[in-house]
Design a protein that fits this description.
It is a single chain. The protein is α/β, with parallel strands linked by helices and about 400 residues long. The chain has three domains: about 5-65 and about 90-165, Rossmann fold; about 180-295 and about 340-360, Alpha-Beta Complex (Argininosuccinate synthetase, chain A, domain 2), CATH 3.90.1260; about 365-400, no CATH class. It has helices at about 15-30, 45-55, 65-80, 95-110, 125-135, 155-165, 240-255, 280-295, 300-315, 325-335, 365-370, 380-400; strands at about 5-10, 30-40, 60-65, 115, 140-145, 180, 185-190, 220-225, 230-235, 235-240, 260-265, 270-275, 340-350, 350-360. The strands form three sheets. Strands 3-2-1-4-5 form a five-stranded parallel beta sheet, with helices on both faces. Strands 10-9-8-13-14 form a five-stranded antiparallel beta sheet. Strand 13 and strand 14 (about 350-360) form a beta hairpin. The chain is elongated, with a radius of gyration of 25 Å. It starts with 5 loop residues before the first strand and ends with a helix.
């Protein structure tokens, strides 16, 4: 422990990380640097500065990373149409590599020997933070207090605060019973009644979306414009990556879109039930598949679909900086060269309905696809030989009594 002179802590200013900051000072006798990232969690991050200063911390980093988060992490992931286990849009998973990257960068800038995080020993985030950190800085030391200390309950944490004069914010009203994580892509809920997979979430839990029943009775129409697989404009107005997601979160949430209730397989081995709100991401996924349906070659589209579960699992398990994810990303990004155009959507009571798509790079040929007279653009007689050749192995098998 004496080898640790300075540590960079991923710091939210909340109860857990405030305790961790003091615990690091006491347990390791080291200097603590705090790093607070604004990735669109919807809470003020500047108050973390005063809390850190109150504990005698001198080096305090507070950074707005919203644009980098969407541009360099969310958008590349959505080019792949990534879904973990067919349902999860990876909102928590995709934020961790960015935080890990900045932790090790700040460690280099400040001459720190180690980084620290507040993830528990039961979850995925400890894996994501640490795999990211080791991939970028192989020799970095990582301190995970939840794997070391015995402060394993809220009561113990509060008692520690009282003993060490750590201010605890007294919030008005009742405290949320859920463990929550938010960023510009999503908000997650775990714990309390959700630990029973049979229990329906209470309506008051959801913060970003109205229920589909309470959504407007009139549909909302929006148009997304794509360039190389990324949304660059909404309803004709060009926006930055973060602005796009902020806009889509609002309009989709207002229409009851983006709720998911999932039992997922954590990387550490256990099943976990979580609820997620990803309103803007739900719209982005549906629209992206729509523009790809018009612009991607069939076999390229199918190859992407074959690779997508592997790609999503890599992100879920924390391998963003691994060579296999980076290699897949090159293929995915190359596939997006002609994914340009516009998609029109109807949002209505929890539904995202594609009502139109257009592109100068479209592979759709109306002259060939028409059910009317195609003026010789397609010779239907060619289909007979095509079918016989593809049936050859089936006919042979049948002749040999294989069916």
């Amino acid at each position: 422990m004496s080898e640790i002179n300075k540590v960079v802590l991923a710091y939210s200013g909340g109860l857990d990380t405030s305790v961790i900051a003091k615990w690091l000072q006491q347990t390791y006798g080291c200097e603590v640097v705090t790093f607070t990232a604004d990735i669109g969690q919807g809470e003020e991050v500047e108050p973390a500065r005063a809390k850190a200063e109150a504990m005698g911390i001198e080096e305090i980093y507070i950074e707005d990373l919203r644009e980098e988060f969407v541009r360099d992490y969310v958008n590349p992931m959505f080019r792949a149409n990534a879904l973990y286990e067919g349902e999860y849009l990876l909102g928590t998973s995709i934020a961790r590599p960015l935080i890990a990257k900045r932790l090790v960068e700040i460690a280099r800038e400040t001459g720190a020997d180690a980084i620290a995080h507040g993830a528990t020993g039961k979850g995925n985030d400890q894996v994501r933070f640490e795999l990211g950190a080791y991939a970028l800085t192989p020799g970095i030391k990582v301190i995970a207090p939840w794997r070391e200390w015995d402060l394993n309950s809220r009561d113990k944490l509060l008692a520690y605060c009282e003993q060490n004069d750590i201010p605890v914010e007294k919030k008005r009203g009742s405290k949320s019973p859920y463990s929550m994580d938010a960023n510009l892509l999503h908000i997650s809920y775990e714990g309390d009644v959700l630990e029973d997979p049979a229990a329906e979430p209470e309506e008051a839990m959801w913060l970003w979306s109205v229920s589909p029943e309470a959504a407007p009775d009139v549909a909302t129409y929006i148009e997304l414009e794509y360039e190389r697989g990324d949304v660059v404009a909404v309803d004709g107005r060009r926006m930055s990556p973060a602005e796009v997601l902020e806009r889509l979160n609002r309009v989709a949430g207002d229409n009851g879109i983006g709720r998911a209730d999932i039992v997922e397989n954590r990387y550490v081995g256990m099943k976990s039930r979580g609820c997620y709100e990803t309103p803007g991401g739900t719209v982005m996924l549906r629209a992206h598949r729509a523009i790809e349906s018009l612009t991607l070659d069939r076999e390229l589209a199918h190859l992407k679909d074959d690779l997508m579960p592997r790609y999503a699992t890599l992100i879920y398990n924390g391998y963003w900086f691994a060579p296999e994810r980076q290699a897949l990303q090159v293929l995915i990004d190359e596939s997006q060269r002609y994914v340009n155009g516009k998609v029109r959507l109807k949002l209505y009571k929890g539904n995202v309905i594609v009502v139109g798509r257009e592109s100068e790079n479209s592979l759709f040929d109306e002259d060939i696809a028409t059910f009317e007279d195609d003026a010789g653009a397609y010779d239907q007689a060619d289909a007979a030989g095509f079918i016989k050749l593809n049936a050859l192995r089936l006919r042979i098998a049948a002749q040999k009594g294989r069916h």
